[in-house]
Amino acid sequence: MNPLSLTLALGHYDHTxxxxxxxxxxxxVALRTLHLPIEEIFYxxxxxxxxxxxxxxxxxxxxxxxxxxxxxxxxxxFISRAFRxxxxxxRDGGSVKRPEDLVGKTIGVPEWAQTAGxxxxxxxxxxxxxxxxxxxxxxxxxxxxxxxxxxxLHLPDGLSYTPVPDKSLDQMLMDGEIDAVMSARxxxxxxxxxxxxxxxxxxxxxxxxxxxxIFPIMHGLVLRGDVMSAHPWVAMNLVKSFALAKKNSIxxxxxxxxxxxxxxxxxxxxxxxxxxxxxxxxPYGVDNSQGGSINRATLAAFCKFGFEQGICARRLAxxxxxxxxxxxSFKV
Length: 332
Fold this sequence. Notes:
The chain is α/β, with parallel strands linked by helices. It has helices at residues 14-20, 38-48, 58-66, 115-127, 169-174, 201-212, 225-230, 233-253, 266-277, 292-308, 324-327; strands spanning 4-10, 29-35, 53-57, 72-81, 88-91, 106-109, 136-139, 160-163, 180-182, 194-196, 217-224. Helix 1 crosses helix 8 and helix 4 (115-127) crosses helix 10 (292-308).
């Protein structure tokens, strides 16, 4: 039997490389891989479903899942994870010196449903106790005008949220029209009039993880719904292959005999990762032995944030996010 031909779009990652270069095959599947810029992948797949398997913003995904959208299913393969205390940018010499100063101010975001922003606002509201309705919000492209939301929103009562189609966030922050920017991608004026709000973000992020078990999941791997319906076996085969590729990546990066990336002290850093996050320090799955508590806690918090912030029409349970044939049996 000939393998099923499927198209995959995702960014360049060491922990997915073994799948995309064929070192770790996906049983029964012949992959054609497209490496594209992240914003382009999200735009084209979210709006047009142009390929069979895709990297996808978790914010966009939970918005669609809350609508019971049958056209896309996530797999418990978490391509990108990042804490986002570093995503707050302010103007040098401005009035915002600490997160609490954001109350009563105007913050710009590239999209309300951007995953990084969901986690960032969740930190403000749940961890710091800041009422998001006491902040004015504007939406625009970070460095280019004209960016738009890609999913329907259900904003909370009393929230001030205004799209600005003809300006960029970078321009507005530099001109003093807004007080801060929250964005996964830095504004171009960072270091040239703009700075991060929290210089000690890594220390704050590690403390946040210790107190909450939240290790933010930014991007997942999703399968188009028609492929899932016609070939349900593909889901678990993808999960197994991507999990092995990630395991291989961790072993490479931890190898002290050669430089597998152009970074000094990389094995020392991977040892530190293990001390903070455990032996499997970039866990996949929902309830696997190494990362189960981390991933379930993270996903539960994200579903809560998504509902409270109006990205989701209803509050999702973690077990609704993934097909039953992978969520219940996936082990690492």
